[in-house]
Each structure stands twice: as C-alpha cells, then as structure tokens.
Amino acid sequence: MWRPVIYTWQTNTFIMSAKKATSKKSAPTRAGIITAYMGYVLEHGETPKSVYKFSKDLGMTEVEFYGFFASFDGLRQEIWNTFFDEAMKLAHKNENYDTFSNQEKMLTFFFTFFELLTANRSYVLYALQEQRDMMKNLSQLKGLRHRVKEFASGLINDKNAEKQLRILKQPVAVFSEGAWLQTLFIVKYWMADNSPNFEKTDVVIEKSVRAIFDVFETTPLESVIDFGKFLWKEKMN
C-alpha cells in the first residue's frame, strides 16, 4: 500500500489541560480557547453550559471570547477547520509534495487528516455522536466541507488543464462534491474501525481514492470492483 512519509509530529497537538491552554496571567488566544474547550468536553463529558461560565473559568471575559468566536457552534466548526488546515500544513512539509501526482496529494491529505483525527479520537467521537441528528452534525462540518471541496476542485482543475478536448474534461462541481461525500464515508468507517492502528481505514482510504481518480480518468471498472469487494467482505465479516 502506497503511504507517503509525511512528517514527525507529536500527537498532543491539541489536547492539553485547560490550565496550560489559557493562563490567567496571559492574554487568551484562539488556539488556547480551542484546546480548553476540547479539554473541558473530555473531562466533563458534556459541553460548557454557557460562554460566561466557560470564560470565567479560563480567567477571561465574554468579550474576549467573542473576539475569537461568536458562539460555541462557531468554535466547534473552527475545530474541524483547524484539523483540515493543520493536515494541509503538515502535508506541505513533505519536500516532495509539489512533485506528487494529484492522486498522491489526495492520499497524503487523507492519511494526514485521519492521523490528526486519531490523535484526537475521543473528542471527535464525542462531537459526532453527541448530536444524533445528522443535520446538526453536518452543521459543525460546514467549514470542513468548503475546504475539502476547494482542495478537490484545485486538483480537478489541474487535471482538466491537461486534457485537450473539452468533452474529456470532468465537471468540477460533481467531483468536488464526490470528494466531500468520500470524506464523510471514510469518517464514518473510521469511527467504527476496530482494527489495530486503524489499518482497515488506511485500506479504505487508498482504495476509495484510487477508485475516484480512476472514475475521473474514465477507467473505473477494475478499481471500483476492487473497492466494492473490500466493502462487501467487511460487511459480511
């Protein structure tokens, strides 16, 4: 299985104690508030009751909180945005990233993104399972959806530029939305994955990315069948 060498990274990027995240003697920061919120959720098993109480516990005012986030909903969205932005930042640290094919760039993103999710798995599972209403879950993923689609659109536009005939060019909107649905599918699979080191999720990432790029190249049959067989085997087991 192709796997990029991405970075050396400590898994405690986000999770730390609230005391370390936001000190009463220091000015609040966006990253500190995010870290403190995630720490609160994990330690208490619930979201903060109010911005006022949460801010007070961190030694800051509501006004200071609102200087970074308009609400807890906005904060939750920003956590997912940060996962994406950090994954892209780490992927670009690979000195060979610019020479990767579009398929390798997408693989690099997904592998990096899911390593970040795994490092923060307890929070991610809570965030996605707390609200059983799918529409509420998707609302916190608005920014992530926009970023994934924008990233995929860039890859598709690059590939379309290589095609001489207009009839061979693929619709950017369709394939970028497909990349987003693919992301949701992999997240759902990862949430239920019980394999060591989430190895089966890695297989799903590789096969699904290969399948979607083969569809883009209009030669999908072999990889789509291969991916379908893998999912059928998993379902039967």
Order of helices and strands: HHHHHHHHHHHH
Number of strands: 0
What would the average pLDDT be, to the nearest integer? 80
Low-confidence stretches: 5-24, 164-168
Q: State the distance separating the first and last CA atoms.
A: 22 Å
Shape: globular
What Rg do the Cα atoms give? 20 Å
Helix content: 55-70%
Query: What is the SS-derived class?
Result: mainly alpha
- Main β sheet profile: none
Instruction: Estimate the strand proportion.
Output: under 5%
Can you walk through the features of this model?
This protein has about 240 residues and is mainly α. The chain folds into two domains: about 20-70; about 75-235. The chain contains twelve helices and no strands. It has helices spanning about 20, 30-45, 50-55, 60-65, 70-90, 100-120, 120-130, 135-140, 140-160, 170-190, 200-215, 220-235. α11 packs antiparallel against α12. Residues about 5-25 and about 165-170 have low confidence and may be disordered.
Features:
237 residues, mainly alpha, 2 domains, 68% helix, 0% strand, globular
Give a short summary of the structure.
The chain has 237 residues and is an all-alpha fold. The chain has helices at residues 18-21, 30-44, 51-57, 62-66, 72-92, 102-119, 121-130, 134-139, 142-161, 172-192, 199-216, 221-236.
